[in-house]
């Protein structure tokens, strides 16, 4: 039994055909077929039902497939470990950060990392809504500082450490509020412009969060632009609480209170990494230091 045979088993089981598996593994169909037959002979089991149009796992094949996934995962871990052991500290690490996160809260951790590993470049990628989590999932970032829903958190794919709870606050400028002195429902704002930050992730393209049907919108790609437009009275929308603390106290901005639209939305920010991906020495030290952020709050 070889890792190559297990890779063939995995691809044929998931793709359902020798042709698709051969394209995925860059091997000929006869080579894939021969590899599967040799594996079946070595195990003394028929792994695939070949009667239908698509190859499907037999009951025994399904059990072997699950074991094969674990072995392939362990092999990948070993390969990553060998790479990190021979390479030493990373030349760079990337942290994807949800743009509503208050970066000041982790500046001591970043300064500590910079001081201890001066030759490692730290790249901070600002993302919106689902973008930071997707960056970790696609290995475009080593770590993410963002929110994560319970479904993703309980999937077993991620390790997460709580950082702090923040809020997105629904606000508008006084001149905007004056146009709606008896505001009760969000439907009254349909003809006004809601300023919306676009999702930098791809899985939710076309989905508008907290936007009612028929709402006029202006789309921006950062909170700074959104804040400028809202403060000018051109529209309304949600902004991170730390970003508008002074403006609310000075009445430059006002909270919008409506019966059918939350004034504040709580966001639980967490440090997140993939369980299946080994971190290098620098990223691992940063991860361990991030665990201490919530304890120091």
* Uncertain runs: none
The percentage helix is 40-55%
Principal-axis shape: elongated
- Give the beta-strand count: 11
* Overall average pLDDT: 89
Helix/strand/pairing category: alpha/beta
Cα distance spanning the termini: 52 Å
The gyration radius over C-alpha positions equals: 25 Å
Reported by name, the CATH topology of the largest domain is D-Maltodextrin-Binding Protein, domain 2
- How many distinct domains? 3
What is the C-level CATH assignment of the largest domain? Alpha Beta
Number of helices: 12
Instruction: Give the ordered list of helices and strands.
Output: HHHEEHEHEHEHEHEEHEHEEHH
Q: Tell me the β content.
A: 15-25%
CATH architecture assignment of the largest domain:
3-Layer(aba) Sandwich
- Write down the oligomeric state: single chain
The largest β sheet comes out as: 7 strands, mixed
